[in-house]
Design a protein that fits this description.
The chain is mostly helical and 470 residues long. It has 20 helices and no strands. It has two domains: 3-219 and 345-469, no CATH class; 226-321, no CATH class. α2 (37-48) packs across α3 (57-66), α9 runs antiparallel to α18 (391-411) and α17 (371-384) runs antiparallel to α20 (447-469).
């Protein structure tokens, strides 16, 4: 590479680094990392080395290795931001190698979006997963189409990161499959049946990642799957008026279950709420174990017997979780304070944190805080990608965002915005790539991709806005 070209490249990459560093700086306002109740529980297990599978043991195992460096959340915050920042930097390099330094800057500028920037300041499995997937996406694109051994190494590293992400959330396979399809290379893209087989194998691999990791780490089974089973059974019971739980020894159980039910989240049946529901997690767990019931098998039978009630429950919850047709604030978009604890964990308060929190809260209440908009835009980007030069990159990122966001229609048990963090990040990156691609098309050829990309968003945004107004 000539010296002049190197200087230009260095200048553009330095410019791209400015918004990236700005976005990371916003996340670091939450130093040493905001810790929720989930994080506190994970940290306790990281210290003890005694893991259960309620939260990902893989994250706790890594945290345990980081404890000698520094106690508290700071090492984990640094790790997730390093993965996230390195992934964004890699995407900027990928864009520059394709002669689009401006695209690299635009991709890095997505780190300045208030909600992802604030959420990445929290020490959560969702954030670590988003960091791993961002890094994996960049490695996948940097290694795309090359046959040299060193680029095979990039693709292998990307695969490892995708599998690692799948050990952090049981539904992460939906986000990972599009990335693995790109990593599989052109041979699997030549026909639909090859892509189907590759997608099936990728799904099996990623679904197996978490249970295998949990077993390898010796994690105790906590019956975590019952949270989803209880939530869905409670929804079916509420919508049918008939108790569909296993026999719990509670007289007239259906009204009790319905009184405790909330379509927002399953927590009303947990052991940490006050007051406790007369029918709680412990009651269901005892009944399941006493009768040796397979929780998912039992749930599947109840869904088959009451499909309309199940669909109504699921759509009602997903509508709330995605902030679609709702009028009131569902949940605080981002947290500001670490959960109460006796180990002294807290974020550094001050005017800077107050400003970041205020901006994130304001943005979170508008369309940029509605997951339904990101899901709709991701769908539009997939539909519009056909004639675009970087359609593979757009489909990988938007497809990952779309599948992961749609997956919560089935797998969600709460309505926290953090669940959609990866959908926000990947959709924003894919949008930047599409906008850059449009500039390479003749003016007359731009109209159709723009219309396809925006149509789902316009419909969803219009409906959501009108619902809030009337």
């Amino acid at each position: 590479m000539p010296d002049a070209t190197r200087k230009v490249a260095a200048a553009w990459l330095a410019l791209a680094a400015l918004p990236l560093l700005g976005g990371i700086a916003i996340s670091l306002v939450y130093w040493p990392g905001l810790v929720t109740y989930d994080g506190l529980r994970q940290y306790d297990q990281a210290l003890s080395g005694q893991f259960d599978d309620w939260h990902p043991p893989m994250m706790e195992w890594i945290w345990r290795w980081l404890v000698p460096l520094a106690h508290g959340p700071a090492p984990m915050l640094v790790l997730q931001l390093l993965l996230y920042g390195a992934g964004m930097a890699g995407l900027a390099v990928w864009a520059w190698r394709r002669g689009r330094p401006g695209l690299g800057m635009a991709i890095c500028a997505t780190t300045l979006l208030p909600l992802p920037a604030a959420l990445m300041g929290e020490v959560l499995k969702d954030c670590l997963m988003a960091g791993a997937l961002t890094a994996a996406a960049s490695l996948a694109l940097l290694g795309l189409g090359d046959r040299h051994e060193r680029h095979r190494g990039l693709r292998l590293a990307a695969l490892v990161l995708v599998v690692f992400a799948a050990t952090l959330r049981f539904n992460a396979f939906l986000a990972g499959v599009p990335l693995i399809l790109v990593l599989a290379g052109p041979r699997c893209w030549v026909s639909w049946w090859r892509m189907g087989v590759a997608a099936l194998l990728a799904t099996v691999l990623l679904l197996a990642a978490m249970p295998l990791a949990n077993r390898a780490l010796g994690a105790r089974h906590s019956d975590v799957e019952l949270s989803l089973v209880i939530f869905d059974l409670a929804g079916i019971t509420t919508h049918t008026g008939h108790d569909v739980f296993p026999p719990l020894g509670v007289a007239n159980a259906a009204p009790v279950i319905s009184r405790c039910y909330s379509p927002v989240k399953w927590d009303t049946y947990s052991w940490w709420v006050d007051p406790l529901c007369p029918i709680s997690f412990d009651h269901v767990r005892a009944a399941v174990h006493a009768r040796q019931i397979s929780p998912y098998g039992y749930l599947a039978r109840q869904i088959a017997a009451h499909p309309l009630a199940y669909v109504e429950h699921r759509l009602t919850h997903w509508n709330i979780a995605t902030r679609f047709l709702v009028k009131d604030m569902v949940d605080r978009p981002v947290q500001r304070e670490t959960a109460p604890n006796d180990v002294g964990f807290k974020v550094s308060s001050g005017p800077l944190l107050a400003t970041v929190d205020s901006v994130a809260m304001t943005v979170g209440l508008g369309p940029l805080g509605w997951p339904c908009c990101y899901i709709a835009l991701a769908l539009g980007l997939v539909l519009a990608s056909g004639p675009l030069p970087q359609r593979l990159a757009i489909r990988m990122l938007a497809g990952s965002a779309l599948l992961y966001g749609l997956g919560y229609a089935v797998f969600s048990v709460a309505s926290e915005l953090r669940y959609y963090l990866w959908t926000m990040i990947a959709t924003a990156i894919a949008l930047m790539i599409m906008l850059s691609d449009l500039r390479t098309l003749p003016t007359a050829a731009r109209k159709r991709p723009v219309l396809l990309a925006l149509a789902p968003l316009v419909v969803v945004l219009g409906a959501a806005s009108l619902w809030r107004l009337f």
